[in-house]
Amino acid sequence: MATFVDRVTLHLKAGHGGHGCVSVRREKFKPLAGPDGGNGGDGGDIILVASTQETTLLPYHRRPHRTSDNGGPGMGDNRAGFQGQDLELPVPIGTVVRDADGTELADLTEEGMRIVVAPGGQGGLGNNALSTTKRKAPGFALLGTDGDELDIILELKVVADVALVGYPSAGKSSLIAAISSAKPKIADYPFTTLHPNLGVVESGETRYTVADVPGLIEGASEGKGLGLEFLRHVERCSALLHVLDCGTLEPGRDPLSDLDIILAELAAYPVPEGQVPLLERPQLVALNKVDVPDGRELAAFVRPELEKRGYRVFEISAVSHEGLRPLTFAMAELVEADRAARAAEAQARPRVVIRPRAVDVKDFEVRVEGSHEGNIYYVIGAKPERWVQQTDFANDEAVGYLADRLAKLGVENELFAKGAVAGATVVIGAKNGMVFDWEPTLTSAAELLTAPRGSDPRLDALNRPTTSQRRQTYKERMDAKTEARAELEREREAGIWAAEDDEG
């Protein structure tokens, strides 16, 4: 049974918003006292929270489907629906959040960091909120929108100050058990450690964490052994400690060849952009198992060569605890230096400036795509797509209200500019959008209509004139008025009016 999981795919479904209510207040002697439909409640968000209490993604491996609560519908007497409860999912510090395409959304590296990965749906407005001085009794309400439904990928990268790297059975687990209170599994066969172990070490006044990374072998960066799965846990570490086995009995192995292979695998592993390559980070070498026969002699033999390469070398024994104190203080020095450098970098980091949204940025765009049936006009934008989702298309007045909102947003003018004509196919939304046969005669005059509630006369007539027909009628009427004025002027010049005035 798995006890450690560092990569998992979550299937999230945020709560839907509640529908608005259509209601009319009824009082004694006032059967229609005005609208009193309440608003629907918002759906619950799904939030990831970085927590020190979590060390693995195992709970999400067992239950990958998570759902937040829906919002409640609005009610009469101006009662709003209840708000859907947010769902907070605690994840270990060091969790990287990606979408289904692999794009990084967030890197939760500090306690308490939060990210809303699936926003809940928006509650619909009731008819009371939609009433105005001109539309006093709306016969419709807005529907609640759906919450986001998506898949995200969680990838855990252990946050530690020092990473212990080395061949399998080099003594990394024994070392972390000797210098901290960690209790890793220890055995004398390769790949005993199947997941990273964390231990807290105190050296003087410095406290830091050490990660025991599972053993690396040649070809680990290409997928051999367990190294490819756990090399990413080295990315977060400030320094590396190479644990070399001086007591191995395997033929063809020695501390120097082991170190060369590990260095080659670390160099072949690509780190994310902006991070220091693994081999450019501070490194120490620990020659382990000097307490076994011939171990001390082998350590003394290879130590000059390692120091010649520029490494600080420590001869240790994880079993007898020989040489551990100098090693822990040396690691503390590297950690303190890295923390000081990061603090200075944080102070020099430029401030984040949040600017308001520009007023001339459009809330939508119109894309034209050709087909065998003619051009199709796609209206893409958060506002129009949300408005369509909020509309009850079984209610004519609600459809008229949608037409008014789209016209005021400028959608009709943009369609005219793109060459749309009456009867053109208009789709609002890129995926699974609502398809309309566009009629540009739906002008924004719903507030002036005197039709019964829930109806819109503009949607009833099948012989509605098009814009060009209305324009032609207007021109003919203006021409007739001009001709009438000219006729009167000719009669005046002919003296017809003057004779009548004299007789009077």
TrEMBL record:
Gene3D superfamilies in the record: GTP-binding protein OBG, C-terminal domain, GTP1/OBG domain, P-loop containing nucleotide triphosphate hydrolases
Example GO molecular function: GTP binding
Uppermost EC category: hydrolase
Domain Obg: 2-159
Keyword Zinc tagged: no
Compartmental location: Cytoplasm
Name of the gene encoding the protein in the UniProt record: obgE
Compositional bias annotation for Basic and acidic residues: 473-494
Superkingdom to which the source organism belongs: Bacteria
Similarity-based family: Belongs to the TRAFAC class OBG-HflX-like GTPase superfamily. OBG GTPase family.
GO biological process, one term: ribosome biogenesis
Chain ranges of the OBG-type G domain: 160-336
Protein name: GTPase Obg
Residue ranges, annotated region (Disordered): 62-84, 453-504
Residues involved in GTP binding: 166-173, 191-195, 212-215, 288-291, 317-319
Enzyme Commission code: 3.6.5.-
Main localization (coarse): cytoplasm
GO CC annotation, single: cytoplasm
Alphabetical list of PANTHER family matching this protein: DEVELOPMENTALLY REGULATED GTP-BINDING PROTEIN-RELATED, MITOCHONDRIAL RIBOSOME-ASSOCIATED GTPASE 2
Subunit structure and binding partners: Monomer.
Annotated binding of Mg(2+), by residue: S173, T193
